[in-house]
Amino acid sequence: MPALHRSFQIILLLSTTLLLPLSSSAASRDPATHFFQESFGDLTEELEIAREGGKKGIVIFFEMDDCPFCHRMKREVLNQPEVQDYYRKHFRVISIDIEGDVELTNFKGKQTTQKAFSEKENRVRATPVIAFFDLSGNQIARFTGATRDAGEFLLLGHFVAEGHYRESNFNRFKRQQKNR
Fold first, then answer.
1. Which domains are delineated in the chain?
2. Shortest CA distance to 134 belongs to which of 48, 66, 65, 58?
3. DSSP three-state, residue 61
4. Which value, to the nearest 10 degrees, does the dihedral of the CA atoms of residues 171, 92, 89, 141 take?
């Protein structure tokens, strides 16, 4: 009988382990509808919407179609409800394709393209880049590359929303938070 009991425990453990990824993915939500917000490409209007909504600023996720790190961020970080809720509470969140020819109006009201805005105005050449802009359209923080996980991405949001970017850089802030 103990061998049967042991076999049952192993089967139960294996089935739980196999179902765990399914349960965590069931809790995730599509970042296209729950993280990014619809934009008509007028960043001056986005600033107004952010001000009216009591946001701290605008987050732009600079990406491109063939970027594996962008896809990983969407699949593992930006799909997490806690991340989505936090960022939407504090920021207006927009995605920009750095190779895009779609026209947009920059923060100064000038017509440009997504590609020109990315490359010429923000020096984005590698993706992803997560750039934070204040309510006047000034870049106040920037993170290049994919974050390690959802926790680090949330910490990045806290770093900006709580104003820590004024006194420190993100790496120093992370170390301080670890030591608490």
1. 30-178 (3.40.30.10)
2. 58
3. strand
4. 10
Alpha helix stretches (DSSP H) within the chain: 2-26, 31-34, 43-52, 68-76, 81-90, 114-116, 122, 150-161, 170-178
pTM: 0.84
User: Do strands 139-144 and 91-97 pair parallel, antiparallel, or not at all (unpaired)?
Assistant: unpaired
How do residues 118-144 score in pLDDT, each as one tens digit? 999 999 999 999 999 999 999 999 999
DSSP string, 115-163: HHIIIIIH---SS-EEEEE-TTS-EEEEEES--SSHHHHHHHHHHHHTT
**Closest by CA position to 97, among listed 76, 67, 135, 75:** 67
As given in the structure block, the two tokens for residue 128 are 């992803």
3-class DSSP state for residue 176?
A: helix
